Amino acid sequence: MANILIIDDDVIMTELLSQAIKDRGHDIVCTHTLEEGLSAAKSGSFAVVYLDVCLPDGNGLDAIPEIRNIVSAPEVIIMTGAGDPDGAELAIKSGAWDYLEKPSSMNTMILPLVRALQYRDVKLVQKPLMTLKRQGSSAAVQA
Asked: Could you tell me which of 87, 81, 34 has the C-alpha nearest to residue 57?
């Protein structure tokens, strides 16, 4: 089970996505402005943040570095109703996990979440193993 944050001013999309995520056993927090979303992200421990680009109080793309630098370093999945190749490139270069165009099927919306959570699980397992290798003999370090 993971904590997931959705920052999107589209109430219907938020409700649909929220329910799909809850159905998979995760906890969800939804906000509808960038300011509320950033506040929630900083006060919680989220594994993944779904982030809309066009929000009433700002551009979600501008917030990616700030969200990625939060202690829990959540993966950011960008969602937008206005697909833009330059925006997609900027999102990925800024550290976003994925870039989705709305509307999409729920499977299309959930697949990046599944992959991001798998990645985070592997990263958590590998980090202690890397530490053990470093503390072992020089032969283990070279392996």
From this structure: 34
